[in-house]
Amino acid sequence: MVRRIVVALGGNAILTDDPTAKAQEQALVTTAEKLIPLIRNNDVEMVVTHGNGPQVGNLLLQQLAADSAKNPAMPLDTAVAMTQGQIGFWMGQAFTRALIKNDMERVPVISVVTRTVVDSKDPAFEKPTKPIGPFYDEAGVAEMQAQYPDWVFVEDSGRGYRRVVPSPKPTRIVEAAAIKPLISSSVLVTVSGGGGIPVVETSEGYEGVEAVIDKDFSAAKVAELVEADNLLILTAVDNVFVNFNKPDQKKLETVTMAEMQAYIDEEQFAAGSMLPKVQAAMEFVNRTGRPATITSLENLEDFLNNDSGTKIIP
Ligand SMILES: Nc1ncnc2c1ncn2[C@@H]1O[C@H](COP(=O)(O)OP(=O)(O)O)[C@@H](O)[C@H]1O
Ligand SMILES: NC(=O)OP(=O)(O)O
Known about the structure:
By secondary structure, this protein is α/β, with parallel strands linked by helices.
């Protein structure tokens, strides 16, 4: 039986230490090759989605460096669209190359620019939480803050400071119905990159809003809307841990929703990194009754063969 899997790619799948286009494209070539085992036996319909936090923040900085009268900076919704196109292009290139290398060039590839509907009254608009762009040390933050007093910065999981922007929850993917036939015809689809372009519904259609949607929550929404059998969130760790980075850390394998909720209540997962992944995975399980797994790209073969990773079940 054919399984449909939505794969959400974490930051390390695209960006290493080098933010050049060449290095990011190369990282995606490696990523695409690692994903091929999922579809090699024609028993999985794979839908791919990815983040854009570093890229969209870098793009905004690049635009601010330009002459604002002649070449104005684009608003955040448009910048999200630009990075969705940018990474979607790289993703397409990488998949084409990986498919040729594996004698699978018959599989058609497409990256779709998609919009994600959010609620204009989402409280997230009042409280920015989504880190974008580069990391700064304390002196760097002070310099940026002097230049851009309205920007908000937070410390990001011990890795330095980053600018944060509003991150409302996805309620719907506008193009969901349009992409379903593509998936059913075995097209390798990249969709909802960067969480999707944030829009609110209006009487005339949709209007873009200044936000960056969390790609794990949008992946959960995509997985729900395309009736995926699994949501697979790929990040830098093979498993979610309790007591993470402590001598008594313990990896989680198959975990029920109730057990996971108890770990959340114990504050086992860092806000801004593992917590949203766990919450997004749980949202998919809660809405569909189907499992979600959090693991790494490196562990993909083991996930396929032995169902390894942290699997959340009802
Ligand atoms: N309890 C935990 N178990 C496993 N990893 C955790 C935990 N808490 C925080 N982390 C960190 O969260 C990271 C994943 O979040 P992040 O790097 O923001 O995701 P992304 O892969 O989407 O860029 C892991 O690489 C790990 O360092
Ligand atoms: N949009 C988003 O969640 O991007 P990152 O995963 O790169 O932070």
